[in-house]
Amino acid sequence: MSAIGVLIMAYGTPRSPEGIGPYYTRIRHGRPPTEELLADLTRRYSAIGGLSPLNEVTDAQVDGITAALNERDPGKYLVAFGSKYEVPFIEDAALTLREAGCEKVVCVALAPHSASMSTGQYMSRAIAALGEGVEVATIESWWEEPGFLHLVAGRVRDALTQIPTERHATTRVIFSAHSLPEKILALGDNYPDQLLESARLVAELADVPSWMIAWQSAGRTADPWIGPDILDVLRTLPAEGITDIVSCPIGFVADHLEVLFDIDVEAITTATECGMNLVRTRSLNADPELCRVVAQRVATAAS
């Protein structure tokens, strides 16, 4: 009996400074960015050290998920990784599994929430690349997993310990995820509902009295994107008497540009300018418990 294929997918990030332009072009569906847009993206990467650590973190996550699967059922699974916008691409990983003779493949994205314009595109590319004759099981989202919610709640509690207890009454926890164009709402996409419910459950587990959701990292396009943006929200909070912020980018499970720049640089700078202190929750990265959560979901989908 052939091994069950596991296709793990993530967004991807440039592997070199020279790769930023081609990467940006792929994100723009083959349209090269203007010099201004490219300079802005390069500036943001430079602000976090030149490149994002996402590739290394993703590799560690894939290794951790693979180890967790092998611990459960040695030799049962064959794992391959594919990226949406950087080599190896989703199609490359799918071909690896197909050529290995996998008759069934479980597809999962390293993003807890699902949306038609994000994880939906991962799944459609994977299914098309795997082709006929392969049984495909897709994991559309996994934010509901208790292990994930408890992990994030633990990160929130850890962040709160960095704020003096006497200021907890004027502390607000902001849960955020990557914004998407508003047009997904007309399609009935429940991505915002998933963010709200996951935030509510984590706030309940962490016993957080004051929390809200916001959106971040909107694309630089003419289309309107889901809001409110976290930077705009931060500017309104001093009027409410808020002194401290815990930023929990619950929609991301790894350190990369949207966390290390959009939160650690832009959001912290904005909060400071508004007279507030902002503490970010630690990213899950390759936490063994996160890897076990994803592996458990894969095993369930494979059964």
Can you describe this structure?
This protein has 303 residues and is an alpha/beta fold. It folds into two domains: 4-143 and 286-302, 3-Layer(aba) Sandwich (Rossmann fold); 146-280, Rossmann fold (3-Layer(aba) Sandwich). It has twelve helices and eight strands. The protein has helices at residues 20-27, 35-47, 54-72, 90-99, 119-130, 146-160, 183-186, 191-205, 230-236, 257-260, 262-273, 288-302; strands spanning 4-10, 77-83, 104-109, 135-139, 171-178, 211-216, 244-248, 277-280. Strands 2-1-3-4 form a four-stranded parallel beta sheet, sandwiched between helices. The chain has a four-stranded parallel beta sheet with strand order 6-5-7-8, with helices on both faces. The longest helix is centred in the N-terminal third of the chain and has 19 residues, at 54-72.
Oligomeric state of shown chains: single chain
Q: Detail the poorly predicted runs.
A: none
User: Helix/strand/pairing class, anyone?
Assistant: alpha/beta
- CATH architecture descriptor name of the largest domain: 3-Layer(aba) Sandwich
Write the element-wise H/E pattern from the N-terminal end onward: EHHHEHEHEHEHHEHEHHEH
Helicity, as a percent range: 40-55%
Instruction: Give the beta-strand count.
Output: 8
Summarize the structure.
This protein has 303 residues and is α/β, with parallel strands linked by helices. Helices cover 44% and strands 16% of the residues. It is globular.
